[in-house]
Amino acid sequence: MPTDRPRLHFVTGRLAEHSLRQVLERLAPRVGFEVTVQVMPITVAALMPTPWIARRLEVPAGTERVIIPGGCRGPLEAFAEVTDVTVERGPADLRGLDDFFGQKSRDLADYGRHDIEIIAEINHAPRLSREELLAEARRLAAAGADRIDVGCDPGASWSGVGEAVAMLVAEGLAVSIDSFDRREVEAAVAAGASLVLSVNSTNVEAAVDWGCEVVVVPDVPATMEGFAETVARLGAAGVPCRLDPVLEPIGFGFAASLGRYLDVRRHYPDAEMMMGIGNLTELTDVDSAGINTLLLGFCQETGIRSVLTTEVIHWAASSVQECDLARRLVWHAVSHRTLPKHVEPGLVTLRSGKPRTHGPATLDQLAAAIRDPNFRIFAEGGMIHLLGAGLHLESRDPFALFDDLKAAGRDDVDPSHAFYLGYEMAKAVTALTLGKDYRQDQALDWGHLTRPEIAHGPSRAAARAATTSRATVPAPQSPPAP
User: Fold this and answer.
1) In whole angstroms, what is the distance from residue 252 CA to residue 195 CA?
2) Distance of CA 424 to the CA centre of its chain
3) 155: how many CB neighbours lie within 10 A of its CB?
4) Host H or E run for residue 185
């Protein structure tokens, strides 16, 4: 039956054919296009360089676009001699086809919105030079902080606090001052600080004259002594407040302190509130991302619209960025009443996504199909797999794999190539240990901490040199691609 829907021609390998057809069967009617699929005579689609595809490409009449796997290397200009139809790379992974065709879930259309302010404290600010203080403030702001909190040291009054605050304000930063020293607070406010941490019965009278917003804390957190009186005094004087009943560390009243936040919200339903989440992240032996996300979720549900964090201890050294990601995730979950799942991969740093596996039979088929002298490395089934021409070795131990490689007669691995293989196998061991997805020549996924892989290694040089002369060319291994 004639149709006015565009026809798209997809190119894939044998391994991904079934999965690709399943995805397209669901996706094509929704997006509105007709589909043809060409299966190339190769197992792993990502191993196809563009000149090799061009020599075998068969474009059906009426095709408007040809989609090749995103992992295929080589210039798209290679297709100019064989077809006038536009050829483009799709995603490297089948799971990206929905996004590729603009089919993100509707409830992700506004993803990234948030309404929780991140206050990042610079601890022991008086001990830093002006240059160090400014550099740290800039770093925290770049990570997502909305306000820089200048943390003062108890005991001695900091004579340079006014100059420091003025410098940060001139930089365009919102600044708060964390001190109970009245002289420090007055100097900071005069220099442009717009929030004071913290106020209780000991300094409430002075706070009336500061002319800026303050954070109210109880005199004794466990009993909330003095809290209601301080709130009432500041309210009568028209001083804007944020209420913070104080989060306690685990073992020192953590559960009860969470209950106090709920109690304060019930007693002051319209009040602004703040939570000092660093009391938990800095004082608990655990990576901070999970704690930050849980506490931001609590704040989002409770209407706590600002959090105070810091990055002193090494396991919380990326807390500001974690909070920035977490506030977007929890806003999305609470606003759309949907689970905060499969939405924000940047917060999953240790485990990352579920590994994609090929299975022993497919790896054996790939080993049988390899004709060039280079190696492919896979990590699945608890084993490192080293594949070469007619060779499939596996072991949990990279050293054992090198022994097996020598026993198999492959004595053509020079020191540079051996270093490269060792580097890749070390990544593979890490992936197996943590249940990560390993892809040769690609960085392991550490969420927002991921750093791009630096392009080195003999396999890359060999792949480029062999592109025009071999049918099967070494390239980074990847999951099934379209």
Assistant:
1) 28
2) 23
3) 6
4) helix 182-190
Q: What is the CATH number of the domain that holds 253?
A: 3.20.20.20
Q: What is the residue range of 202's domain?
A: 117-347
Structure tokens belonging to residue 369: 């199909």
HSE (side-chain half, CA atoms, 13 Å) at 277: 34
Three-class secondary structure of residue 177 per DSSP: strand
State the Cα–Cα distance between residues 140 and 311, nearest whole angstrom.
9
388 in the same domain as 319:
no
Q: Provide the Cα torsion 289, 291, 295, 298; round to 10°.
A: 110
CA distance 315 to 280: 12
Tokens 């006014």 sit on residue: 162
User: For 220-298, where are the E strands, in sequence order?
Assistant: 241-243, 272-276
Over the chain (482 residues), what is each successive 10-residue block's mean pLDDT? Answer: 80 85 89 94 81 94 94 90 93 80 68 96 95 97 97 90 97 96 96 96 95 97 96 97 97 97 98 97 96 98 98 96 97 92 89 80 84 88 92 95 92 89 95 91 90 63 36 34 42
196 and 309 co-located in one domain: yes
Task: For residue 19, give the DSSP letter.
Answer: H
